[in-house]
């Protein structure tokens, strides 16, 4: 049993907040919603925000004086975009101020046996991202089988992932404890000889009770103290509401929803 099992809900909520990539990847999200998201992240001290590429520049401007990092998504959510477009989008995102690139592994290509094509996209994004962190979304809900999930995680690590991330949140099955256990097993097997590779649980994580499940799993597998923003993230659009409820923090954001598009 780890420290996490002894933590109060309040302590879990504080840890989840520090590790949160506050996400808005809604299909009809607006510039105003993204600016409000950035202000909310800065106000409460999340690890990062995760937004569509077209909002990176304005969001990065809002967060310029803040430690909150800016993450964006490429090859998202299909995992099937042409490599040239994925590279161009990555380069533009970095130029616009992104600190972290969340790329979808070409998981359909992997499932079809085309490992080289999947690896080529990861190599190209790793290269285009320069020194910025790359998180590889393996879309574990579509891979289903634990052996296939482990294989995808190993491919991601072998091709430069700083984090292995479960899900886009756009498929019927998102993060599950079983998928998390399979990925964490791969990360644990890397040992101390290499730079640590982090884990990001994403998709469908809404409550502090959900967060506790993944934090305890990560500490059981990786050891006490491993859950920190450098190696552990939650990608979630709704989790912050429950974190603030547990922490009894009133959210002062009064931004009105807007219909304008960026
Ligand atoms: O990368 C993160 C996911 O897109 C967020 O999914 P969610 O809206 O279910 O929290």
At CATH level 3, the topology is TIM Barrel
Report the portion of residues in β strands: 5-15%
Order of helices and strands, N to C?
A: HHEHEHEHEHHEHHEHEHEH
Largest sheet: 8 strands, parallel, barrel
Q: How many strands in all?
A: 8
CATH class: Alpha Beta
What is the architecture at the second tier of CATH?
Answer: Alpha-Beta Barrel
Beginning-to-end CA distance, first to last residue? 48 Å
**Rg from alpha-carbon coordinates:** 17 Å
CATH homologous superfamily classification: Aldolase class I
What ligands are attached or bound here?
glyceraldehyde-3-phosphate
Q: What spatial form do the alpha-carbon principal axes imply?
A: globular
Spatial order of strands in the largest sheet? 1-2-3-4-5-6-7-8
Structural class: alpha/beta
Number of domains: 1
Low-confidence stretches: 255-262
Determine the number of helices (DSSP H or I, runs of at least 4 residues). Answer: 12
Bin the helical content.
40-55%
Mean pLDDT: 94
EC number: 4.1.2.4
Keywords: Lyase, Schiff base
Organism: Salana multivorans
GO cellular component, one term: cytoplasm
Structure description:
- This protein has 262 residues and is of the alpha/beta class.
- It contains 12 helices and 8 strands.
- It has an 8-stranded parallel barrel, surrounded by 8 helices.
- It is globular and about 50 Å long.
- Glyceraldehyde-3-phosphate binds at residues 23, 25, 50, 168-169, 174, 202-205, 235-238.
- Its EC number is 4.1.2.4.
- This is Deoxyribose-phosphate aldolase.
- Pfam families: DeoC.
- It catalyses: 2-deoxy-D-ribose 5-phosphate = D-glyceraldehyde 3-phosphate + acetaldehyde.
């Amino acid at each position: 049993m780890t420290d996490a099992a002894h933590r109060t809900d309040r302590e879990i909520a504080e840890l989840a907040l520090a590790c949160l990539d506050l996400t808005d990847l809604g299909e009809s999200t607006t510039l105003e919603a993204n600016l409000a998201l950035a202000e909310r992240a800065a106000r409460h001290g999340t690890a990062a925000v995760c937004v569509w590429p077209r909002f990176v520049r304005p969001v990065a401007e809002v967060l310029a004086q803040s430690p909150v990092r800016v993450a964006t998504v490429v090859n998202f959510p299909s995992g099937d975009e042409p490599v040239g477009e994925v590279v161009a989008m990555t380069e533009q995102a970095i130029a616009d101020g992104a600190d972290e690139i969340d790329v979808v592994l070409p998981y359909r290509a992997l499932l079809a046996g085309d490992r080289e094509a999947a690896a080529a996209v990861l190599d190209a994004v790793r290269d285009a991202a320069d020194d910025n962190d790359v998180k590889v979304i393996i879309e574990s809900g579509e891979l289903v089988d634990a052996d296939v999930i482990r294989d995808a995680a190993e491919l991601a690590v072998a091709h430069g992932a700083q984090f292995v991330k479960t899900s886009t949140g756009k498929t019927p099955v998102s993060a599950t404890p079983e998928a998390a256990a399979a990925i964490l097993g791969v990360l644990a097997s890397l040992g101390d000889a290499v730079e640590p590779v982090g884990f990001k649980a994403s998709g469908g994580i809404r409550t502090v009770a959900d967060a506790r499940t993944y934090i305890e799993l990560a500490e059981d597998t990786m050891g006490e103290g491993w859950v920190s923003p450098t190696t552990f993230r939650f990608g979630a659009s709704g989790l912050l509401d429950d974190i603030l409820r547990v922490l009894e923090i009133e959210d002062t954001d009064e931004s009105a929803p807007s219909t304008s598009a960026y």
